[in-house]
Amino acid sequence: MTVSVLVPSSLSREAEDKREATRKLGYVARAATIFRADRLVVYPDRDGETGQFDGGFVSTVLRYAATPPYLRNEAWGMRDELEYAGVLPPLRAMSQTGSESTGSGSSRQGIVTEVGPEGRVRVNCGLQHPISLNVPPKMAVEEGERVTVRISSRRPVRAKLVDEPLPGLSIEQTDLRAALGREDAGVRIAASRFGEHLTVGRLETLAGRTKRDGMTVAFGAPERGLPAILGIEESAIEASSGQGDAADNGVEPTADPGFDLWLNTVPDQGSEVVRTEEALFATLAPLSLRE
Question: Do 3-92+169-287 and 106-162 fold alike per CATH?
């Protein structure tokens, strides 16, 4: 089961300064981490971008936030986009293979600091010192490359380099339609206040599907929701709420990038505007419930 969260490149469009924009992105990354998202995808919304907080800024800050703290200085150095990286809330991501990120049998990210002879490399993976590891057959690594390290013991240190995807939250940039078209997209949900209201009864069937197939949930930007980004009439979405998948929901096929349903997870919102980072918590929390 794969969980993907899609956010627009215009995510920080309303931020007054770089500090505020950075903090906002930190809470987006934290929401994705709390609910164990596998991917956080930034899709383009060029018309909604303002000033310096474009897709490049958004992706850089999110990638930095998703980088383990022990690798940040070595992996990123000094960059203008990260001027206020200190305000990012810690993600403290749990390992998916161990009891915690430092636990026995856990996987963690490392960075290759030196490529030596006889198929050995030195890797900084957050232990007291870089450790020397054998490179698995058919796996090629370069200095500065990020790798996955499986740690079975810390005292004494027992670890091995494994040819597996990096653990933790993956940050990507891709087109919205392409993200929804992935084989592992699962249930494709558009989060919008114009969508079908999420009820207890609807959640019971929907949660079963997301647990089995996974899900991809797309969000809009401040003052610029998904209908505006996609050029879809809000009335078309409202009229079709509760009628099933995107092919029959009244939305023009040329405008709909491939959603299965439009969903309003805050049906009785008390604030005129629900911020994107707030919408992530409000949406991913109920969709993560299990029987």
Answer: no
Residue type, 227: P
- For the chain, give every domain's residue range: 3-92+169-287, 106-162
What is the rounded CA–CA span in Å between residue 75 and residue 89?
19
Which CATH code, of 3.40.830.10, 3.40.309.10, 3.40.1280.10, 3.40.50.300, is assigned to 3-92+169-287? 3.40.1280.10
| Cβ atoms within 10 Å, residue 226 | 26
| Structure-derived torsion over alpha carbons of residues 154, 105, 126, 130, reported in degrees to the nearest 10 | 70
b/e burial code for range 264-275 (CB count within 10 A of at least 16 → b): bbbeeeeeeebb
- For the beta carbon of residue 57, count every other beta carbon within 10 angstroms: 23
| Its pTM surpasses 0.85 | yes
Q: What CATH architecture is 106-162? A: Beta Barrel (2.40)
pLDDT tens track, the chain, 291 positions: 899 999 999 999 999 999 999 999 999 999 999 999 999 999 999 999 987 899 999 999 999 999 999 999 999 989 999 999 999 999 988 754 444 444 447 889 999 999 998 889 999 998 888 999 999 998 999 999 999 999 988 888 899 999 999 998 999 999 999 999 999 999 999 999 999 999 999 998 898 888 889 999 999 998 899 999 999 988 888 776 654 444 444 455 456 789 999 999 999 889 888 999 999 999 999 999 877
Please name the residue that has the structure tokens 């990286």: 85
